[in-house]
Amino acid sequence: MQDLKSIIKERRSIRDFQEKEVPDELLQQILECVRWAPSWANTQCWEVIVLKARAGKERLRETLPEMNPARSAVMQAPVVLALCGKLETSGYYKDKVTTKFGDWFMFDLGIATQTICLSAHDLGLATVIVGLFDHNRARDILKVSQGHELVALIPLGYAAKDSASPKRREVGEFTHYETFVTH
């Protein structure tokens, strides 16, 4: 196991995958990590759909626009994870006087997504987060239950090649103290 900082720094969005199956035990380790991801008031508002069948992935690929480079990743990756969020749970509470509503589930799904990507990388697997697709069509294809929203697709497998690190802003370029001041 690598140290966390290395895992964060080395993880890349990968869209080209080897024709090599992901062992079920590695997939289960990733899902176990998601189980422990933090969420608002421990609502654990995520649902994960695991797709391996070619026919389902082909139908999902058709929900991505032609210009989306992840179209091929959906087909190449041996596994595609579809992350759904349960609505009206995370960020919601009721008491005798007040009902508070929020859309915190997107933060929780972001944490779950990051957990998937980092744990996959730690296990020698590659991922890419796909958000640009026809969510309604994909939702119908996956038969996502009412009260849930399909948030992201994550192709998962072994990278076909290593990818170099993109240039990053220096910490001082995005850090502000006490107030937001543009640089």
Walk me through the structure.
The strands form two sheets. A four-stranded antiparallel beta sheet has the order 1-2-6-5, with helices on both faces. It has a two-stranded antiparallel sheet with strand order 3-4. The model has no long low-confidence stretch (mean pLDDT 93). α2 (24-35) packs antiparallel against α5. Helices cover 34% and strands 16% of the residues. β3 (93-94) and β4 (99-100) form a beta hairpin. It is globular and about 55 Å long. With 183 residues, the chain is an alpha+beta fold.
What Rg, in angstroms, do the CA atoms define? Answer: 18 Å
User: Hey, roughly how much beta strand do the residues contain?
Assistant: 15-25%
Q: What is the CA–CA distance across the termini?
A: 38 Å
- Helical stretch count? 7
CA-based shape: globular
Contiguous low-pLDDT stretches (5 residues minimum) are: none
Q: How are helices and strands ordered from N to C?
A: HHEHHEEEHEHEH
Main sheet attributes: strand count, strand direction, barrel closure: 4 strands, antiparallel
Number of beta-strand segments:
6
What is the strand arrangement across the widest sheet? Answer: 1-2-6-5
Looking at how many chains there are and whether they match, the oligomeric state comes to single chain
- Helix/strand structural class: alpha+beta
Mean pLDDT score: 93
Helix content: 25-40%
